[in-house]
Write a structure and sequence with these properties.
The structure is a single chain. By secondary structure, this protein is of the alpha+beta class. Helices cover 45% and strands 14% of the residues. The chain has 25 helices and 15 strands. A six-stranded mixed sheet has the order 1-9-10-8-7-6. Helix 16 packs across helix 18, helix 20 crosses helix 21 and helix 21 crosses helix 22. The protein is globular. About 4% of the residues have low confidence. The structure holds zinc ion. The site of zinc ion has 7 residues, from strand 1 and helix 18. Zinc ion (ZN) binds next to strand 1 and helix 18.
């Protein structure tokens, strides 16, 4: 539950050398690099560079290569976990796209290709963000005839999955009052298992050490046997997805052999053991070793990690991110982690909810070298792991900001949205000058200080047990509020991260206008907000608007039929953010489900229909994609006989081409 996604729709940034935010930049050569490689539906596909690749030694490049290969080897797992018919459907799409006998110039093919690209981007037939199934806006007869011409038969149920809008309509459904499992199509549970059955199953689990619980359910599917009993089908070399997992293990072993140091090799050894047995205590052992491994220039995330795709928050999605440390940027930001105890001591939360000592938070700005599974093509920009609370308390956590991904977003962003929704020239100029710095500071504070802050009262269960389907939204709100509260603190200037408060003001403007308006671009008219980060942003922004109504702290202005939310008093607003932070921390610390539910349902879910229509109307002519993702650099080993002596990187220009190459090289299920 520890990731940040990019929402800098307002952050339209020109990179110039006189810009103070330049200080925080990775040394990226932006000249002549084509960022965008594809555009369809609500998506644009970008590229990113690995500027520090050439600074690594050949051995480090080989290490990164094997880690990247391990990631790609698990690609099919994510597709299958997302939905039980995804792999069958994907193979049918691939067959049509790669066939020479299909007429690619026809209108029917063009419609079909958009659908196929959407499916590839989402790792399945449900939207990666809204979780809604894609409409099959292409000719069904043409599709089925083309398939039969290729000798491919698609099962009845897979056909229904594509063409029947009401069938398995939503991947993850967290709506208030529904059976979370029956209403969700995600394949972490057999289709007929109910929420009550799963709750009973996990309530019966006992931990050898209750203070150090394993992450029950993290690496398994809950299935039903022939006697109707439910059981966990564990993901391991001996269980479900064994063939993919053995491939992953093979690459990890090769990585282990060229690791930069003993600690890395030891952690990889534990990860391999965990994949072999699926034993979750091994996963904890691995995480403790991984979080303690801070030396070396190359690091990675690998495993069944984030639980956003499980409506009940148990099961982790397979993901990998391979990273190269950005030394200069990391050194500049180390000051955030160095001061993490100061932030905790000076937080507006109640004294009894503060940590006496915040243990070992390490923070690095990294350059991504490759991503796979749930982290690709859509990617986070910041990650804080591990997720197990007791490991974070006892052993610390690692936070990373994905610097080159953020750079790619900013470099590829147009100014259109900022100009349309910015209230005045002053606001627009400030956003242009300081917006990127503000959003980077927000990411750093959210990850390093936010998620690491606060503690749960003795005897209160974990948030997924107490706050259930609201736990992710409330956790993201908590981390955002920590960031918003401190970004305007004098401390930020004292420790040299900001020269003045302008970046903080720009971030406040951005946050409110995003939370109240801009992010609505991402949903369809009439829909509620479903996604956790979106719920969190609207919750925070609309709660603050209401809180400051009497004193006109945030003013809703309508000029020439255009709505703006203008902040009149930044300090007061900061105070409100502190208040809400205190309350949400209380909810988490006490496990107050009812108060959490009320906050999210009152402020985070329902959409102002008129405002939504206005946002869509104003952004439509700009033709900007509300979602972005990335093709990955491709790595080619340089061979000498049978051994790899170095690795070369290229930056592909074709999204669909990369998807087909992945299918060819990494299909193991
Ligand atoms: Zn987060």
């Amino acid at each position: 539950m520890k990731r940040v996604l990019f929402m800098g729709a307002m952050a339209a940034i020109a990179l110039s050398s006189c810009n103070p935010q330049e200080e925080l930049h990775t040394e990226t050569d932006h000249t002549d690099f084509q960022w965008q490689v594809d555009r369809f539906a609500d998506i644009k596909v970008l590229r990113y560079q690995i500027p520090s690749w050439d600074d690594l030694t050949p051995q480090q490049r080989i290490y990164a290569y094997h880690l990247t290969q391990a990631g790609l080897a698990g690609r099919d797992i994510m597709w299958d976990c997302n939905y039980r018919h995804n792999l069958e459907i994907r193979r049918a799409l691939e067959a049509i796209i790669s066939s020479d006998s299909v007429d690619k110039e026809s209108a029917a093919y063009a419609d079909f290709e958009v659908y196929a690209k959407r499916v590839f981007f989402a790792n399945g037939i449900h939207h990666h963000y809204s979780n809604m199934k894609f409409a099959a806006d292409f000719d069904q007869d043409w599709f089925l005839q083309t398939l039969s011409g290729l000798g491919i038969e698609l099962s009845e149920e897979a056909q229904r999955a594509i063409f029947d809008p009401s069938f398995d309509a939503k991947k993850v459904n967290r709506a208030d009052g529904v059976d979370l499992l029956l209403a969700s199509a995600v394949n972490f549970y057999a289709p007929d298992i109910t929420q009550a059955e799963a709750e009973a199953f996990y309530a019966a689990k006992e931990d050898a050490d209750p203070a150090r619980p394993v992450s029950h359910g993290l690496n398994s599917r809950l299935s039903r046997d022939e006697n109707g009993e439910i059981y966990e089908e564990v993901f391991s070399a001996r269980g479900r997805y064994a063939s993919s997992i053995k491939e992953i293990m093979g690459h990890l072993a090769k990585a282990q052999a060229v690791a930069e140091n003993e600690d890395q090799a030891k952690a990889l050894g534990l990860l391999i053991e965990y994949y072999e047995s699926g034993d979750l205590t091994k996963w904890d052992d691995y995480n403790i070793a991984w979080v303690s491994t801070t030396g070396g220039d190359v690091d990675y995330i690998n495993g069944f990690v984030e639980v956003y795709n499980d409506p009940m928050g148990y099961r982790g999605s397979y993901e990998t991110v391979v990273q190269v440390k950005d030394f200069d940027a990391s050194a500049r930001m180390a000051v955030v982690a160095d001061n993490v105890q100061w932030f905790e001591d000076n937080s507006p939360i109640m004294e009894e909810h503060k940590k006496e000592s915040v243990v070992g938070v390490s923070y690095k700005i990294v350059t991504v070298a490759g991503e796979a599974g749930d982290a690709s093509p859509s990617t986070p920009i910041g990650v804080n792991l591990p997720n197990a609370n007791w490991i974070r308390v006892e052993h610390g956590s690692k936070s990373v900001s994905l610097g080159n991904i953020e750079d790619a977003y900013h470099a590829s962003a147009g100014k259109g949205m900022a100009e349309e929704f910015g209230f005045s020239t002053m606001h627009n100029e400030r956003a242009e000058k300081y917006g990127e710095l503000g959003s980077k500071m927000h990411t750093a504070l959210h990850e390093v200080v936010g998620h690491a802050s606060g503690k749960i009262n003795p005897g209160v269960g974990t948030p997924k047990e107490t706050l259930k389907n609201y736990s992710s939204t409330l956790e993201e709100a908590r981390a955002d509020l920590v960031a918003l509260y401190f970004i305007l603190d004098d401390k930020m200037q004292e420790i040299g991260l900001m020269e003045n408060k302008e970046a903080g003001y720009a971030e406040f403007d951005n946050y409110i206008s995003n939370g109240m308006m801009l992010q609505l671009r991402r949903i369809l008219p009439g829909d509620d907000i479903e996604e956790d980060h979106m719920r969190n942003r609207q919750l925070v922004a609309s709660w603050a608007c209401e809180r400051g109504k009497e004193e006109n702290v945030i003013e809703r202005k309508v000029i020439d039929g255009k709505t703006y939310f203008v902040i009149n008093d930044y300090d007061k607003l900061r105070g409100y953010f502190g208040e809400l932070l205190r309350e949400i921390q209380r909810i988490k610390s006490e496990g107050d489900f009812e108060a959490g539910r009320m906050l999210v349902e009152t402020y985070g879910v329902k959409v102002d229909q008129e405002l939504h229509a206005e946002v869509l109307r104003r952004s439509e002519p700009l033709n900007l994609a509300p979602y972005s993702g990335f093709v990955n650099p491709e790595m080619e080993p340089v061979m000498e006989g049978d051994s790899i002596i170095d690795v070369k990187v290229t930056y592909p220009m074709d999204f669909l081409g990369q998807m087909l190459r992945y299918a060819k090289n990494y299909s193991f299920e």
